[in-house]
Structures are given as C-alpha cells and as structure tokens.
Write a structure and sequence with these properties.
CATH topology: Nuclear Transport Factor 2, Chain: A
CATH architecture: Roll
Strand content: over 45%
Number of domains: 1
Number of strands: 6
Shape: globular
Protein name: Nuclear transport factor 2 family protein
Number of helices: 2
Mean pLDDT: 95
Structural class: alpha+beta
InterPro entries: NTF2-like_dom_sf, SnoaL-like
Strand order of the largest sheet: 2-1-6-5-4-3
Low-confidence stretches: none
Amino acid sequence: MRTPAETMTAYFEGWRRHDAESLRDVLADDVVFDGPMGHVEGVDDNVTSLHGLLSIVTAVDVKHVFVDGPDVCTVYELHTTETDAPMLTVNSAHVVDGRARTIRAIFDPRPLLGM
C-alpha cells in the first residue's frame, strides 16, 4: 500500500502525463474535491472533471510537499494554456488506505476567468 506522500506523488504524476484515467488508482471511490471552480463528488465525476482540466494544463511544477500523517499539502505552480503566468496553487489531500478521500485546491481563479 502507498503512503500518503506516494499517493499524492502518483496523483501529480498522472497530471504530468495528462492521464486522468490513471488517477482512478489513487482516488477513493467516494473522493470529494472542493476548489474555487467547483465541487465534485465520486471517482467517476472527478476523473471526468480532470479530463477537462488536463486538456489545458501544460506543466505542473511542485515546489513543496508537506506530510502530516494521512494529510498531504502540495504547493505547486500550475501552467495552463489559458493563463500567461503560472498559477500558484495549494492542494490539501486526506489519504486513507493509499487513496485520496478528500482534495481541496486553493488558488486565485481570476486568471482563468479572464480577470
């Protein structure tokens, strides 16, 4: 079984490969995602949402990873086709049995909204 850090490393490696389907292996069936652009529940809807997001992602540059037991906080720069500059993002995940159960992304969505 993966550690929480290994789980979230695999999650972001899937992003880097633009492979949303591989994320089924690291997301719990009842995973809940919350972020400035929406709320998504369940592995199927999360993978569908990630297909859309990964279509605009050009790079993910992880800066820091902090682990506290089952909780992993990843600070990264998200590069997209929709923004001129990378978006500083914080991702907080709670991992149970090698799968992310909750994920919360924190970032300023204004560049994606054309503001």
